[in-house]
Amino acid sequence: MSRSDIERQRHEASIMKMRAMRLRALGDEKDQWDAILLLRRAAEKELAVAHRKAVSEQEQARALIEACGLFLEARDPVRATEQWLRLPGWVFASNTSMLERLKPLYREATRTFAADWFSLKKKPSAPPAYSGISDRKLNSLTKNYPGVAEFWWILANRKNDKKEAAVARDRMRQLEPAFEQDNAARESWEQIEHKFIRNLTIAMQAERQGTILLLESVSRITTAFNELFGDFIDETFGNAVGFLPQSARAGSFILDVAAWGLPRFAIAEFDQKLTHAPERVGPQRIMELVALLRQNNVKLTVSTDIAPIDFGFESGDTEATSITLDAKRCRALLEAAKIAALRTLDSRDIPQADDLLRVFKLVELLESNEMLDPDTLDITKRQVDYYRRAAKILGLLTESDELTAAGSHIVRLDAEDRLRTAVVYFESSVCGNAWIEWSEGKTLLDVNPDEAFDFLQESVPGLNAVTAERRAQTLVAWHRLLSGYHYAAGPS
Amino acid sequence: MRKKQKWAYRLEQLYKDQDPDFVIDAIAPLISWLDPSARQRSHRFELRQQIRDDSIAHELVLSWNVAELAKHDERLESDLERMRAGKTLMLESKPEYAAYGLAMVAISCLLQRRVVAISCFCPPDLLLDTTPAALRGVEVAGRSSKGYTALKTALDGSSGKRGKRVQLLERQDVVEAYISLWCREPLVSIWEQVKP
């Protein structure tokens, strides 16, 4: 493709984007459908540019970003994810600004899609069988994801009403003409899950002969790695990853995991940051994991099945697909993490649950062995994790979600006494203590809540401004509430 | 602030100044945003052009004749009618779409150059030159209210959201960049050259 061909493709894509914008401003269902088709065609044209060998890596990344965004706008998170996972590692660096617009859109769209997809699955290890999806669910899926041709294909084959089936078939054909052949559509359906999932192998092996791997150490190491790696991906790549255990093998302990949404460069980036920027991963938690590995004489190897993508040019990205933490590496990591820990705060220690009373409610639910249901807590599923983390930060829960003595105690108190007690718990938490020290004060009352954002920016390396602002909101909310119940405030 | 410069621009002219394939779809969102009741067909913007520590205040009077514009776009009148009837789904995107058309007007007046491509997810939005590693373009935003305060927020960022200026400054592949911001209530606009 010559330069002028590339410009022509881009020009045609631009015309389609402008027309789609206009149509989307109109309320008619036909206009909305036409907009979806145009957005998809525009994405395909961007991809035609991206896949040319003549284009530079930078130009290709821009075309992939644009294609990903257009697929999202066309309500097709499946094809958007395909492009997202092809993005080179350098575009995720915080100072390139290339993903500023796309990242939150992608995160939200794929989070919602993952929830819908999992609701279709009968078995965790197999993709959902399309024959088992109810008509009601299918109608909802085509409404929420009208750009996903696979859902229209199922609907077209399902509908008894000939007219409705014809509409579904027509839409399917407009999106993916190849789906006229059932085999092509079926194969594509079966591939959807593979677009989101990477197989991850977590292998634990005794470093010394005669050492036996106990279930306790294996599960603690797995939990520590899961949290460290999962949060690192969330912070670095902007999308949450779900780790779904598939099977375990005997001998050395080998766990096969389906990692939903695992970015292509996650392991390479993680490996690099562990060595060169442990503050970006979380020094405290690196030390925890390393301590577990050393105490139990375990070598940890984590690998993925990601095949390198041939873009037709030398990429500056490293594509390591495995990482090994053996005794030698652990020693080096421990040294680096210790130094980093002295000067930084781990983002995991910063709460992001604005409503402290809801944190108590969560502890109450756990105390009474009730499910942590988002509806009961009136928050989203993702926020449940934030509130659970907040309870851990206050020392009310252990890392394995069990109530501590402090947690059991706080449940017995009335609302006011809970807050009085929480003052001390927060002040003595890693975050509360660091905030007070940063403010050169003695208690929470010496802290200026307006400086929460500055405190986080200075103390938590790699925390981007948006995240810092969100976490600062939580600190301000906690400060506001707890100040009124502070032991040093005197009677009001 | 330097002296006022006046511009009188008729939207029909945009078909000559910019690529008609882009203009045709920029006009309807622009008109329906500026003129929801279809009563007024002339709008006076105060356009502040930032040049380093100084600024120039422009007065941009934008006017149009729907019948004339419809000669280029046969569905214009019916689309405007539907937009006015409130049959729109994307209310929150209205300022953004309208600002694309307004930014094309500003580009025509202030730069006398043409937009060659549209980039929706990777700034700048309106590209004047797509040479790899040497992009030139204009980043656009529209706000419904709060005038310069809202526009400054988009420019500089706030509440943890990074501003448009810093995003463009960080992009090494962008060698020439402008920001064009528009507000409907009051009718004010900012034009800033970010690079070089």
> How many helix segments of chain B?
7
Portion in beta strands of chain B? 35-45%
Mean pLDDT of chain B: 87
For the biggest sheet of chain B, the summary is:
8 strands, mixed
Task: Specify the helix fraction band of chain B.
Answer: 25-40%
Could you tell me the number of beta strands of chain B? 10
Strand order of the largest sheet of chain A: 2-3-1-4-5
Structural class of chain A: alpha+beta
> End-to-end distance of chain B, in Å?
22 Å
Number of E-state strands of chain A: 5
Please tally the helical runs of chain A, counting DSSP H or I stretches of 4 or more residues.
21
> What pattern of helices and strands is seen along the backbone of chain B?
EHHEEHHHEEEHEEHEE
SSE ordering of chain A: HHHHHHHHHEHEEHHEEHHHHHHHHH
Strand content of chain A: 5-15%
Folded structure, characterized:
The complex is a heterodimer of chains A (492) and B (196). Chain A is built from 21 helices and five strands. Chain A is of the alpha+beta class. In chain A, helix 1 packs antiparallel against helix 2 (29-50) and helix 10 (215-237) packs antiparallel against helix 12 (283-295). The model of chain A is unreliable at 308-318 (pLDDT under 50). Chain B has 196 residues and is an alpha/beta fold. Chain B has helices at residues 14-17, 20-34, 66-70, 76-84, 94-111, 147-156, 164-170; strands at 2-10, 42-51, 54-63, 117-118, 126-129, 135-145, 157-158, 161-162, 174-185, 188-195. In chain B, the strands form two sheets. Chain B has an eight-stranded mixed sheet with strand order 1-3-2-10-9-6-5-4. In chain B, helix 2 (20-34) packs parallel to helix 4 (76-84) and helix 2 (20-34) crosses helix 5. The A-B interface holds A 7, 10-11, 13-15, 17-19, 21-22, 24-28, 32, 55-56, 58-59, 62, 65-66, 68-70, 73, 95-98, 100-102, 105, 453, 465-470, 472 and B 21-22, 24-26, 28-29, 32, 79, 82-83, 87-90, 93-94, 97, 100, 116-123, 130, 132-133, 157, 159-162, 166-168, 170-173.
